[in-house]
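REQUEST ID: PR-0412
SUBMITTED BY: lab tech R.K.
PRIORITY: routine
TASK: structure prediction, single protein chain
INPUT:
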Amino acid sequence: MEPNVLSRLKKVAGKQTTTLTHYGRKTGKPHDVTIWFVLDDDKLYIGTANVNRQWVRNVKKTPQIKLSMGGETFSGTSRFLTDRTEHERAMSAIRRKYWMFRPIIAVGRFLSAIGVMRDNAGSFEVTLAD
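STATUS: complete
OUTPUT:
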């Protein structure tokens, strides 16, 4: 990540949410969704509890995205993390940032582990361009 981009991102990394602009799989039209994000060292991650959501499917097909937070706007490319180690690193960083939701996340992980609920979590690493 370029030093200027990383510097701008570090200034807003403490914000709770980002507005992600993604593009429709069929129409190409822009859509916005408000989601959690985390900056972990120099890696930017976004995650979801449900990989079947429309925005996730759109971003998988068209990885070019925009992020807006704290008055800053960034353009970049996302990469869906299929490697289990990379995905767990991203989700671990998300759990650290959003510590207040750990009990809820823990219940979901427990229910998935015992087979009551399916683990549909997914994550992306975002590489910013400007």
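NOTES: The two ends are 9 Å apart (CA to CA).
REVIEWED BY: pending
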